[in-house]
Design brief:
This protein is an alpha+beta fold and 81 residues long. It contains 2 helices and 6 strands, in the order βαββαβββ. The strands form 2 sheets. Strands 2-3-1-6 form a 4-stranded antiparallel β-sheet, covered by helices on one side. Strands 4-5 form a two-stranded antiparallel ribbon.
Length: 81
């Protein structure tokens, strides 16, 4: 399952995101960083959980302040071909 998290500071690293999410109890498979508009970074995080677990994690993260930035998160439901 993929979770989109926006609001990270520009200089955030994949390792920092992985470590932060593991403190929330997430098992992170991968992190992809994309620069956002302005001074923040968007992360697309593949977490090893089912849909309900991903939704619960996204809800815990949404609104959380990390390094002075308020995070926004949601679950992405990708469908295969």
């Amino acid at each position: 399952m993929y979770i989109s998290i926006g609001g990270f500071p520009e200089q955030v690293t994949e390792t920092e995101i992985r470590e932060a999410l593991e403190r929330f109890g997430a098992r992170v498979s991968s992190v992809t960083l994309e620069p956002g508009s302005g001074d923040y970074t968007l992360a697309l995080v593949d977490v090893d959980t089912d849909e309900s677990g991903a939704k619960a994690l996204a809800e815990r993260i949404n609104g959380h302040v990390w390094k002075g930035k308020r995070l926004r998160s949601r679950v992405f439901l990708f469908q295969g071909n």
